[in-house]
Specification:
Strand content: 15-25%
Shape: globular
Helix content: 25-40%
Number of helices: 3
Distance between the termini: 34 Å
Number of strands: 3
Strand order of the largest sheet: 1-2-3
Length: 71
């Protein structure tokens, strides 16, 4: 089975990164087309685990420090 034009919205990231990494791998395996995030912490994990996965920033995203500005 392959997802068709599927974009996953990931607003909240759990504290245990092990599960989010497993989740990202599963989403990649089923062929999810992109992710929408509102957290730079999530973006860092996504780029580490599935660097080829397209990521879109949510309109809920806000910039809270200079590190976020530099991403």
């Amino acid at each position: 089975w392959k997802a068709e034009n599927t974009i996953i919205l990931a607003i909240i990231i759990p504290r245990d990164n092990q599960y989010i990494e497993e989740y990202l791998i599963k989403l990649d395996d089923i062929g999810v087309d992109a992710l929408i995030v509102s957290s730079f912490a999530a973006l860092k994990i996504i780029k580490k685990v599935t660097p080829h996965m397209p990521v879109h920033l949510s309109t809920q995203q806000s910039i809270i420090n200079s590190d976020a500005c530099n991403m």
